[in-house]
Design brief:
Elements: H1 4-16, H2 25-36, E1 40-44, E2 47-50, H3 51-68, E3 75-79, H4 84-96, E4 99-102, H5 109-119, E5 123-127, E6 129-130, E7 133-134, H6 136-145, E8 151-155, E9 163-164, E10 183-188, E11 198-202, H7 203-216, E12 224-227, H8 234-238, H9 241-247, E13 251-254, H10 260-270, E14 274-277, H11 279-288, E15 301-304, H12 311-321, E16 324-330, E17 336-338, H13 345-350, E18 354-355, E19 361-365, E20 378-383, H14 395-401, E21 408-416, E22 422-427, E23 431-434, E24 437-440, H15 441-449, E25 454-464, E26 468-477, H16 485-494, E27 505-508, H17 522-535, E28 540-545, H18 550-561, E29 566-571, E30 574-579, E31 583-588, E32 591-596, E33 599-604, H19 608-617, E34 625-630, H20 634-638, E35 651-655, E36 658-663, E37 666-671, H21 674-689, H22 709-724, E38 730-739, H23 745-755, E39 760-766, E40 769-775, E41 778-782, E42 787-790, E43 793-798, H24 803-815, H25 817-835, E44 844-854, E45 857-867, H26 874-881, E46 889-890, H27 892-903, E47 913-918, E48 923-927, E49 931-935, E50 938-947, H28 953-964
Parallel strand pairs: 1-13, 3-4, 3-5, 5-8, 8-9, 12-13, 12-14, 14-15, 15-16, 26-27
Antiparallel strand pairs: 1-2, 6-7, 10-11, 16-17, 17-18, 19-20, 20-21, 21-22, 23-24, 25-26, 28-37, 29-30, 29-39, 30-36, 31-32, 31-35, 32-33, 34-35, 34-47, 36-37, 38-46, 38-50, 39-40, 40-49, 41-42, 41-48, 42-45, 43-45, 44-45, 47-48, 49-50
Helix pairs in contact: 2-3, 2-4, 3-4, 7-9, 11-12, 18-23, 19-26, 22-28
Length: 989
């Protein structure tokens, strides 16, 4: 630790040389109010505050806090999302001389309790609710267990134990007299999992931090700063962030979340000139510009920090977002490095810039404490006018990271470029000690990113009995490509790297786990893959080039493996085939059962998403994918109705023994056993080597025109009457047309897939049940990143037999009040269902009332997208949206009751879903329509129509014919039954 003499000497120097001003942060606010009074200082939604009004609000809130007894030197835990309430609370505490402890909105009970035990706060200011999480129960528990905590203040609707923040409107009184060199606030270190250390920042050093940053970054009175990252973090708070913008007389616009959906609209509306992101968000913003056309022309500068920004990503910022890029390397403990606004592009793209202050003393040292040579990597140590001299109440740790001269040993590894800029190479602790050899993770990560198939990479150390630590490469691949460990080793061999630096293990991810501030969380990666390696079986894999079209080779594989249980699922250019079952999850009565070999485990199924999360979490496999089905009658359970008995479990998921995924030119084969992998590879290569037989011309032609036509008209008329009585708004009624014979699944799939343009297609065979279908829409799509999508199709017309006829029918579709009303109420319900599980600021309709062509029909279609709320997973999205509104009705509960009453029998899989999900959180569920079914010796096709108050029975019957025409003409029956099937029945176009 530095001596008191050193600290006093440095403090005098910083005051004498003008780095530290003799004013508190509250006095700075008073000055800004005087200088910039009528200008707009803060914007949150529709609310705006001028500088004068903001200071008045701060003064009144400080008075209210003082009335509670909060005084100079008290610590106050502040956990609020971005917004005016945060800014007012922060400066009100500074006015009192109290120390705000800036917790992140993402922190939960474990972190909050640890902070309370360490800092012993007097009060806790917290949001009522944010992104679906209710903070009040957690806060009340802290109030009960922490003796120092006397006041709970709620921003929003208070609980019984708290007082509303809005009620604290006291008399304006004189501010506390504080020494500018005293502590002003406590920042949190790092933001990683576990308990962060507390970083005391003084009034003088933090004011300099913010104001010097604002000047360097070109902020002025016309600057508009978008606070997109969590404002409690040092980067958006004072680098230059909120405080730096206000010091220049600029305007701060608050975004609740940093997602592009919200931020782009704010940039366009408020004329935002500056903002800051972390690299993971930069990538999402760049991707969003592929479809978002918001006016971002006001944006001048994007700051990027928090982690190293890959050069290839950095190079896309200006061309795509149209603004300059500034790389920032900084730490809440102090040192800030910026690329300058006039730096050459190579400097901006490839370095992290130079220190903010000429008084910053930065050294790079080796492990033995000696300075490293030019261009060599060493640990960064620093002291200066805004770098701390010790963590709060952490003497033992301070002894480790501060030396006798007062230098803070950051643990960051860096080197100086020839032009004097800093290049950060990683963390000192991010070294792999493999059999005694020290390997820098950052070096391997950079070389991994040079592989043409790798988009991003992270290297972690995993415990290894033989090596001590093994090198695990975690990668995100580009597009739909596949990668094997042998590919990486060939890559490193070509680069001439010694063998001990080659990865020992490869893990492919769809996205990174992130900390609360958006940084890559390597601790989560280590925990995940260390635990999985210890207890979970790995799939064996191989990639095989193929020459045949994927859908044809997939059909040939299905034909080979039948009558084994299997599911073929086409989505996004991939034909995925799951064969057999290594584990099965089934909903049986009120229990969810996991079966693996002879072992069984069960969970209560009252909360189905929770039960599924537990069951899937127990799977003893790495990187699994499950194939499954959900019957329509599952909806009755989800909506609290008596369950109708069906022939099969309402929900079933199977983890296949063999998993084959086909794309143009390549096949990925995965199996749990070596012999199964070898057999599947041999069979696939054999089938790919010989041409497939042409599709035979004979097919079944069921009587879709007249079968049960009168009965169906009567059902429609009855439903219309019930709708007009107000019993429900919309109902989908279906009719079932039998087939005489057994399905030929493969022939039907090949013929139907050639004739249809489905959103998804599938073959499913399970015991005595089978189906083949061409789904016009998905029930729900959830990405590994938690992005949720659904595409309701409601409103139907045939395509006709010519371009002109199709256009005429499309115009008729767009002008039919019944079809438009039916579609609008479907979209409204889907939106309301997503509201319950999605972050409100990131939910929207990305496409409305377009037309989708599906086989022989066209539909009105819309697409809704959102981001899962904190605490929700893919199964919450599934439960919210199942069954599809376009296959049930509105409201769903009443519609389910009416369907059962009118149709008189369970639908089984019709209007349920076939789906896939995986260990990364992905879920993709296809609505089961345009499908032919087989159960034991009965086969059928089925179709429905949406009934609203304007419906006419004959028109709805015609709609079922139009839909059946997309599947019925392509249904093939297995020999020898085909020859005896009546071939003369009419199929209406």
């Amino acid at each position: 630790m530095p001596t008191l003499h050193w600290r006093d000497t440095q403090a005098r120097k910083f005051v004498q040389q003008g780095y530290w001003e003799p004013r508190s942060l509250n006095e700075h606010l008073q000055e800004w109010s005087h200088r910039f009074g009528p200008r707009i200082a803060l914007v949150e939604g529709e609310q705006q505050l001028s500088y004068f009004d903001f200071e008045q609000q701060v003064c009144c809130l400080a008075g209210g806090l003082a009335d509670l007894g909060i005084q100079c030197g008290d610590r106050v835990l502040l956990q609020l999302p971005n917004g005016i309430a945060f800014a007012s609370s922060f400066f009100a505490l500074l006015r009192l001389g109290a120390w705000p402890i800036l917790a992140m909105p993402a922190h939960r009970e474990r972190e909050i309790q640890a902070l309370c035990e360490l800092a012993e706060p007097t009060a806790y200011i917290v949001a009522e609710r944010f992104l679906g999480y209710d903070y009040r129960p957690m806060a009340e528990r802290q109030l009960g267990r922490q003796a120092s905590l006397r006041h709970l203040i709620i921003a929003g609707k208070p609980s019984n134990a708290g007082v509303p923040l809005s009620a604290l409107n006291g008399e304006i009184r004189r501010p506390a007299v504080v020494d500018p060199l005293d502590t002003a606030l406590l920042l949190l270190s790092g933001g990683t999992t576990g308990t962060p250390k507390l970083i005391p920042r003084s009034h003088a050093d933090y004011a300099y931090n913010a104001k010097a940053s604002a000047r360097l970054c070109g902020f002025a009175g016309d600057s508009v700063y978008l606070a997109a990252l969590p404002i409690a973090h040092n980067f958006p708070l004072a680098c230059p962030g909120l405080i730096g913008t206000l010091s220049m007389g600029g305007k701060v616009v608050f975004a609740l979340t940093p997602g592009a959906d919200e931020a782009f609209g704010l940039i366009a509306r408020e004329g935002v000139t500056h903002t800051a992101l972390v690299p993971s968000l930069v990538k999402l913003w760049l991707q969003a510009r592929e479809w978002d056309k918001s006016d971002l022309s006001s944006l001048r500068l994007l700051q990027v920090g928090g982690a190293r920004l890959p050069a290839e990503l950095a190079a896309q910022v200006t061309p795509i977002l149209g603004c300059a890029l500034q790389q920032v390397f900084g730490m809440a403990e102090g040192l800030l490095c910026y690329t300058r606004l006039d730096d050459p592009q190579q400097v901006v793209l490839n370095t992290q810039g130079r220190p903010l202050s000429e008084a910053d003393e930065v050294r790079l040292i080796s492990a033995d404490g000696q300075p490293v040579g030019d261009g060599q990597t060493g640990e960064l140590i620093v002291r200066g006018p805004y770098t701390i001299h010790g963590y709060y109440r952490a003497e033992a740790h301070n002894q480790q990271v501060f030396d006798a001269e007062g230098f803070y040993h950051s643990g960051d590894l860096a080197r100086w470029s020839p032009d004097g800029n800093l290049v950060v190479e990683g963390r000192l602790k991010e070294q792999i000690n493999r059999a005694g050899e020290k390997i820098a993770a950052a070096e391997i990560e950079q070389l991994l990113r040079e592989h043409p198939q790798i988009q991003d990479a992270a290297v972690i150390a995993l415990a290894d009995k033989r090596l001590g630590e093994r090198l695990c490469a975690c990668v995100i691949v580009r597009g739909d490509q596949t990668l094997e460990l042998t590919d990486l080793r060939q890559h490193f061999q070509a680069l001439g790297l010694p063998r001990h630096k080659w990865p020992d293990q490869l893990e492919t991810l769809h996205s990174w786990p992130l900390t609360s501030i958006g940084k890559l969380d390597k601790r989560q990666l280590q925990q995940r893959f260390q635990d999985e390696a210890a207890s979970r079986a790995a799939y064996l894999e191989c990639c095989v080039p193929i020459r045949e079209k994927p859908q044809e080779l997939a059909a040939a594989l299905v034909k080979h493996y039948l009558p084994d249980d299997l599911t073929l699922y086409e989505h996004n250019g991939e034909w995925a085939l799951g064969i057999g079952s290594a584990a099965c999850i089934r909903l049986l009565g009120n229990q969810l059962q996991l079966s693996i070999a002879e072992q069984r485990r069960q969970w209560p199924a009252e909360d189905l998403p929770e039960a599924l999360g537990k069951a899937l979490g127990e799977l003893p496999f790495q990187d699994w994918r499950a194939y499954g089905t959900a019957c329509f009658e599952l909806a009755r359970r989800l909506h609290g109705l008596p369950v109708q008995d069906g022939s099969r479990p309402p929900l079933r998921l199977d983890i296949p023994a063999v998993d084959i995924r086909l794309r143009d030119g390549t096949a990925l084969i995965r199996a749990l056993q070596p012999e199964a992998l070898a057999s599947a590879k041999a069979r696939l290569q054999e089938l790919d080597a010989k041409p497939l037989a042409p599709i035979r011309t004979g097919h079944a032609q069921p009587n879709v025109a007249t079968h049960d036509a009168a009965l169906y008209r009567g059902q429609v008329a009855s439903a219309v009457a019930e709708i007009r009585q107000g019993r429900y708004q919309k109902l989908i009624l279906s009719r079932k047309v039998p087939l005489k014979g057994n399905l030929d699944l493969v022939a039907s799939y090949r013929a139907g897939r050639q004739a249809n343009t489905p959103a998804r297609s599938f073959i499913h065979h399970q015991g005595d049940f089978a189906c083949v279908g061409f789904s016009p829409e998905t029930v729900v799509e959830v990405s590994a990143q938690g992005l949720v999508g659904t595409q309701p199709l409601a409103g139907t017309r045939a395509l006709g037999d010519s371009v002109e006829k199709e256009a005429q029918l499309r115009d008729e579709l767009y002008s039919d009040p019944k079809e438009i009303a039916e579609h609008a109420v479907s979209v409204k319900l889907a939106f309301e269902e997503l509201q319950a599980i999605c972050e409100p600021q990131q939910l929207g309709v990305s496409e409305f009332m377009a037309v989708s062509r599906r086989g022989s029909v066209q539909h009105l279609s819309s697409r809704l997208r959102g981001q899962l709320r904190d605490g929700c997973n893919a199964w919450h999205a599934f439960a919210a949206l199942f069954p599809a509104v376009t296959a049930s009705g509105i409201p769903k509960r009443e519609a389910l009751q009416a369907i059962a009453a009118h149709e008189g029998a369970p639908r089984d899989l019709y209007s349920g879903c076939v789906m896939i999900c995986d260990s990364h959180g992905m879920l993709d569920a296809a609505l089961v329509l345009r499908t032919a079914f087989q159960h034991r010796d009965q086969a059928w096709v089925q179709a429905g129509a949406g009934i609203v108050s304007l419906s006419l029975p004959e028109r709805e019957l015609e709609e079922t014919r139009e839909k059946l025409a997309s599947i019925a003409p392509y249904v093939h029956l297995a020999e020898p039954q085909l020859a005896t099937v009546r071939q003369t029945a009419e199929v209406q176009p």
